[in-house]
TrEMBL record:
Signal peptide: none annotated. Belongs to the glycosyl hydrolase 13 family. CDD domains: AmyAc_OligoGlu_TS. One of its GO terms (molecular function) is hydrolase activity. The lineage of its organism: Bacteria, Bacillati, Actinomycetota, Actinomycetes, Kitasatosporales. Pfam families: Alpha-amylase. It comes from Streptomyces doebereineriae. Keywords: Hydrolase. It comes from the Bacteria. Residues 25-433 form the Glycosyl hydrolase family 13 catalytic domain. This is Glycoside hydrolase family 13 protein. The keyword Secreted does not apply.
């Protein structure tokens, strides 16, 4: 590894840039492949940064790029202060940050503090040291139950299916809330806390502008003996949090976690400008506000919005509640439609309400059949709605191309550990992680000189950047226009709902007349007075068609 001895001076930049930024999520293994081995890499990201700049993004969020065996797509980290050799080197990372800053892009990196890889040097030391050792105290090791310790210490369940405990040859069990290859750290251990302080400084010193904190609500755990069983309480679902006193779950969203983030904030604020952070915390809104407080991470993902169906009443309520939650923390709201963990919204938004998405994926996307044209139309409308809302918009790679989910990946090519961990019952997240199409031809549609680590369908050619670049009406050009306009229009962090809009139409004003109207009906509706600045689909005889959003000035 190489070390950087000076901190880049970013003092001339707006310290509050993140409050209403458009952040583009890069899943590096699927973005661009510079060396032709079929796996995306850091140099590939650097070579394609002009795409993000031309799009109008303010920042890129880089999903995990650390050394990993990919037991969970890079979220099993073997070394928090290095780059996976298959993805490049620290010098490659530095070059990427330099180029991003030259183009006016901020850089946010993923941080995975709840668990390490089982290949991490600490876990290997713990296995070798044996029961009762100091090395095991960095993790959560316990003796099993039963006459011979043959039963797991508790009934806690892994997010990926099955018990959250794995037994090692000497008889003890270790906790893994996710894959067995991802042992949970013990955050009551001083050495764990100090190591992550070092990691925050390491990347901040290299010019990183912020951090996305993975599973931010899981670090603190109630490990007092005897450990508590959950009984019939859902162990991995948000509903469990609603059936316990706030902060009362043994490992989700405990109050003690906030002490950790207050400590982190002192480090992040020691830089000029302060480094930002955003929490991935799957918790109810009022609890989410705690993570977004100014003396903690400052911002938290809003998953209620992502999970809301294409319904005007539900969306209006979620938007109102989300803004209220953000204001309670003196933070800005966050909005997201797709990411590396969910079905892409160009497909999801046209699935009938109540659809079992896993069953749909297992059917190859055929049961029920999805209307791709309607899906794209809704996706474009949803995007303009999201970009008009106060706060930060997080855009997942490929959504600017209108990519739908690749739902028909053959079972034999699946890489997501969920598939095997659940006994091949849950298909997993590979369908939203298929490498991007850049060109209309070639062995991997411009992703790299070779193939791609997940197979790309032939229809990707029509969605490629090359096919949409400069094409009037294309989704790519819609995003470019919207982001360019958004920068000119953006002021303040408030909205006012129009009082006289139809029940199935979302209509709000931001400031100085900037108005956003979204028609969620199945018929065209009249537009309010004002200059039409942009529409997600062409107007129909001067009317706003179904599944269409318009910006008015």
């Amino acid at each position: 590894m190489t070390a950087r001895t000076t901190t880049p001076d970013l003092s001339g930049k707006d310290p509050d840039w993140w409050r209403q930024a458009v952040v583009y999520q890069v899943y590096p293994r699927s973005f661009a492949d510079a060396d032709g081995d079929g796996l995306g890499d850091i140099r590939g990201v650097t070579e394609r940064l002009t795409h993000l700049a031309a799009l109008g993004a303010d920042a890129l969020w880089l999903s995990p790029f650390y050394p990993s065996e990919l037991a969970d797509g890079g979220y099993d980290v073997a070394d928090y202060r290095d780059v996976d050799p298959r993805l490049g080197t620290l010098d490659d990372f530095d070059a990427m940050v330099t180029e991003a800053h030259r183009l006016g892009l901020k850089v946010i990196v993923d941080l995975v503090p709840n668990h390490t890889s089982h290949q991490h040097v600490w876990f290997q030391e713990a296995l070798a040291a044996g029961p009762g050792s100091a090395a095991r105290e960095r993790y959560v090791f316990r003796d099993g139950r039963g006459a011979h310790g043959e039963l797991p210490p508790t009934d806690w369940q892994s997010v990926f299916g099955g018990s959250a405990w794995r037994r090692v040859p000497d008889g003890q069990w270790y906790l893994h809330l996710f894959a067995p290859e991802q042992p949970d750290l013990n955050w009551s251990h001083d050495e764990v806390r100090e190591d992550f302080r070092t990691t925050l400084r390491f990347w901040s010193d290299r010019g990183v502008d912020g951090f996305r904190v993975d599973v931010a609500h899981a670090l603190a755990k109630d490990l007092t003996e005897p450990l508590r069983d959950l009984g019939d309480l859902p162990g991995v679902a948000e509903e469990a949090l609603g059936r316990l006193p706030p902060g009362g779950h043994p490992y989700w969203d405990r109050d003690e976690v906030h002490e950790i983030y207050r400590d982190w904030r002192t480090i992040l604020d020691s830089y000029t400008p302060p480094r930002m952070a955003v929490a991935e915390a799957w918790v109810p809104g009022p609890r989410r506000a705690l993570y977004a407080r100014a003396d903690e991470l400052g911002q938290a993902f809003n998953f209620e919005y992502l999970q809301t169906s294409w319904d005007a009443g539900e969306l209006r309520q979620v938007i109102t509640d989300s803004l209220t939650t953000a204001r309670a923390a003196h933070a800005s709201a966050t909005w997201v439609l797709s990411n590396h963990d969910v079905v892409r919204h160009a497909s999801r938004l046209v699935l009938p309400p109540g659809t079992d998405e896993n069953a749909w994926l297992l059917s190859g996307g055929h049961a029920p059949a999805v209307d791709g044209h309607q899906g794209l139309r809704r996706a474009r409308a949803a995007t303009l709605l999201m970009l008009a809302l106060p706060g930060s918009s997080y855009v997942y790679q490929g959504e600017e191309l209108g990519l739908p989910e690749v739902a028909d990946l053959p079972f034999e090519v699946l890489q997501d550990p969920i598939w095997e961990q659940t006994g091949r019952v849950r298909k997993g997240r590979d369908g939203c992680r298929v490498p991007l199409p850049w060109t209309t031809s070639g062995p991997s549609y411009g992703f790299g000189a070779g193939g791609a680590w997940l197979p790309q369908p032939e229809w990707f050619a029509g969605y490629a950047v090359e096919a949409q670049d400069g094409a009037e009406g294309s989704t790519l050009e819609l995003y470019r226009t919207a982001l360019r306009l958004r920068r000119k229009l953006l002021q303040g962090e408030d909205l006012t709902w129009a009082e006289a809009s139809p029940a199935d139409v979302l209509d709000f004003v931001r400031h100085e007349g900037w108005r956003c109207v979204t028609n969620l009906t199945d018929r065209a509706v009249p537009l309010p007075a004002g200059e039409v600045l942009l529409t997600s689909s062409p107007l129909e005889g001067g009317l706003l068609g179904p599944d269409t959003t318009a910006w008015l000035g």
